[in-house]
Amino acid sequence: MSHSTVAGLPLIPSGGIDLGGTKIEARLFGPDLTTVVHRRVPTPTDSFASFLSALADQVRWLEDRSGCGADLPVGIGLPGTIDPDTGACFAANIPISGQSLRASLGERLGRMLPLLNDAQAFTLSEAYGGAAADIDSTVGLIIGTGIGAGFTHRGTAVSGRNGGALEIGHLPIPATAQAKFDLPLWPCGCGGTGCYETYLSARGLERLGRHTGANTDAPALVEQARAQVPAALRAMEIWAALMVELLHLIQLSIDPQMIVLGGGMSQIPDLATRLQHAAGQRQLGQIQKAAIAIARFGDTSGARGAAVLALRSWPERAF
Ligand SMILES: [Zn+2]
Prior knowledge:
alpha/beta; Nucleotidyltransferase, domain 5; 2 domains; five-stranded mixed β-sheet; 10 helices; 36% helix; binds zinc ion
């Protein structure tokens, strides 16, 4: 299925950059937001200066390849937070913490580019031509090496005062679930214990596997559960029950129309259907549950969502 236009966005080319701990990926999109060309370079991790040079180089490559030069809207998604007052960024795996990336890059390029958190970029991407197209309120939930979440309302990413809205992977699981499955409270990278992320990420599923006696990696565990191996089945059962708790938390706090799942763990076969069914049994009154869908754009979401942000904020005088 292809879309010739994406509702509400100008019909011009755009660029998106997805920053990660190992690569800086630049994607040039056509007016229909499909990828024209992309380029990955390794993320320099030794200093902010070398990181900034590599990033500026990727932006200029997009400008050149588009033929639009500095008239190309370009947005940047990053795995961290951006202070709304100072612009200071905080990211675990990229040497930008404490730096105002937007201002420094703006100085280098002679123009300011919009930045956003990568989970928000994921959600924005799905809201424009993706699984959540034409949906008013959507929560995007990425379950992979960690947990990230974003919220869009009527096409706008809502991030809260500190850009930290929906850092729900670092809330602890409910005491009821912990007691029911006799779960250990594992320490988390954030400094807390018993965070959702320590159970639901790919490594979390492996921990659950060790807890139930299935000592293997996440993909093998999913396979074994499908083959009805009891220990793997039990680990998946606990994982799914905790996923339902997290969905319930989103339901009761945000009450979105749709929850779009992304990240490696969203590729578990029939996940959306199974969770929709299980979540239906976790009911409070007669509320309408959020629909659960799997992301349409997968790995391109970070760059695509950043491009959407750039297009949305592109001045009308440009065309
Ligand atoms: Zn945590």
